[in-house]
Design goal:
Layout lengths: L13 H11 L4 H9 L6 H5 L3 H17 L6 H25 L5 H11 L4 H13 L3 H23 L5 H9 L6 H17 L1
Helix pairs in contact: 1-4, 1-5, 4-8, 5-6, 5-7, 5-8, 6-7, 8-10
Length: about 200
């Protein structure tokens, strides 16, 4: 189960709901967290741990993975996923603007309102979130970019031996990991499959 905040239905961006469902549900956090909870013989922090860049990187990666899987059935739902990508890009600008350029809250709200496909209520909530949590927005994108880079690395190294399911098992099959440890896991997967 995951919950969608529908406190004000006039503020919900309906095209984005499907992309958010893939981020939170399948193939996103539901698969990722359920897989980690299945681990045996490991300390609890490995089953229930959280590394923001890894965990949220998988969530963002999953939104695009859902497209590859054919989950977005029409241009309207794919547009929702793409509008989420715009939202995430704007978050990077906000994180930098607020914490490195010393933007005021009002400047941040104005920028987000002008560039992101979000309701005004959500813009204000998001800006307040980034004010209070420096680097969080950036960590999501760092994780997504790393997982995507590791996938391209594995695809290039393995060619026809690359198996997307096996790759995803390497990425989520050990629970939440620091990104450098994840890269070691993927390098091991590449080495094992090159030799085999």
């Amino acid at each position: 189960i995951f919950y969608v905040n529908l406190a004000d239905m006039n503020q919900v961006q309906k095209p984005q709901v499907e992309g958010i469902a893939h981020h939170e549900g399948a193939p996103g956090h539901h698969f990722q967290i359920a897989r980690a909870q299945e681990l045996t013989g490991v300390p609890k922090f490995r089953r229930f741990g959280y590394y923001g860049a890894y965990t949220e990187g998988w969530g963002l990666y999953s939104e695009r993975l859902a497209k590859e899987m054919g989950a977005y059935k029409d241009p309207y739902s794919e547009f929702g996923m793409l509008s989420l990508q715009i939202w995430r890009a704007c978050r990077l600008v906000l994180d930098t603007g607020i914490h490195a350029k010393h933007w005021s809250r009002e400047q941040a709200i104005a920028y987000f309102t002008e560039h992101a496909p979000l309701s005004q209520r959500d813009v204000v909530k998001e800006v307040d979130r980034y004010i209070n949590n420096p680097g969080q927005a950036t960590s999501y994108m760092v994780g997504q970019l790393k997982i995507t880079q590791l996938r391209h690395k594995a695809e290039a190294a393995l060619g026809p031996r690359f198996d997307i399911r096996a790759f995803h098992e390497v990425v989520i099959g050990s629970g939440a990991l620091p990104l450098d440890v994840l890269e070691e896991q993927v390098d091991g997967y590449i080495a094992a499959n090159k030799a085999g």
